[in-house]
Design brief:
Strands 1, 2, 3, 4, 5, 6 and 7 form a seven-stranded mixed sheet that branches. The protein has a two-stranded antiparallel ribbon with strand order 8-9. The radius of gyration is 21 Å and the shape is elongated. The protein has five helices and nine strands, in the order E-E-E-E-H-E-E-E-H-H-H-E-E-H.
């Protein structure tokens, strides 16, 4: 007897984008204000139903651009969320993706059902639409794990930076205060930071040395078995 499979083709698939940003001081996340039901006027992660003619990974930047104006970002897939009651209009399974960008490099241009788009401090966010608090928490945990094991945060800094600026970045992402001496000793022992020979300019305190991240040196060390860990 042939099995009736029609009930298995009545669910929808969506994408939710967690865009973390650093402004030189705080770690923030990009949210949209929904201009239509369900959850009209609620803040939410940028996300939408996936079009039938789009691949999963291809849909991420398409949806993000449509809602916020941001495009061509590199996303990492984190987790799939499929609780039966997570969407009030029916069964929707969503996949959460995250990325990390420097806020000053991008301009927001909300459109479609996103009436607004705004950056919020991660630690202040709560009461989002749908189950987006849960999705944000999951992606934040992945970011914190990744930043401890891969040098993914260096692109958020200027081309040359001080060790204080680097430490501030890690403290913002990890949500902890780090001992200055221990952090500097550990990071300099990794041998992929290069002194530029220059000092800070136009500062009221003693100018600090400027460094830059040597990606080529890091890749060479990694190929030899080096493990990055903060």
């Amino acid at each position: 007897m042939n099995q009736d499979l029609s009930k298995y083709f009545t669910l929808a698939v969506s994408i939710d984008c967690v865009v973390f940003g650093f402004d030189g001081k705080d770690l923030k996340v990009l949210l949209i204000e929904r201009g239509e039901v369900p959850f009209k006027d609620y803040w939410a992660l940028p996300g939408d139903l996936m079009k039938p003619d789009k691949d999963l990974d291809d849909s991420v930047n398409h949806i993000l651009k449509e809602l916020t104006g941001l495009s061509n970002l590199f996303f990492e897939q984190v987790e799939t969320f499929g609780e039966i009651q997570r969407h009030p209009l029916g069964r929707v399974i969503t996949t959460g993706y995250y990325t990390l960008i420097k806020i000053g490099d991008y301009e927001l241009n909300p459109s479609s059902f996103a009436s607004k788009a705004k950056w919020f401090k991660v630690k202040k966010v709560k009461d989002l639409a749908f189950d987006h608090d849960k999705i944000l928490k999951s992606c934040f945990k992945r970011l914190q794990k990744s930043v401890r094991t891969r040098p993914i945060g260096f692109e958020l800094l200027p081309p040359t930076f001080t060790l204080t600026e680097l430490q501030s970045l890690y403290e913002a992402i990890l949500g902890v205060k780090m001992d200055i001496r221990n952090f500097r000793k550990k990071i300099l022992q990794m041998k992929f930071l290069m002194e530029t020979g220059d000092l800070q300019e136009n500062v009221s305190h003693r100018p600090a040395k400027l460094y830059k991240f040597d990606e080529e040196k890091y890749e060479m060390l990694k190929n030899k078995g080096f493990n990055f860990e903060v």
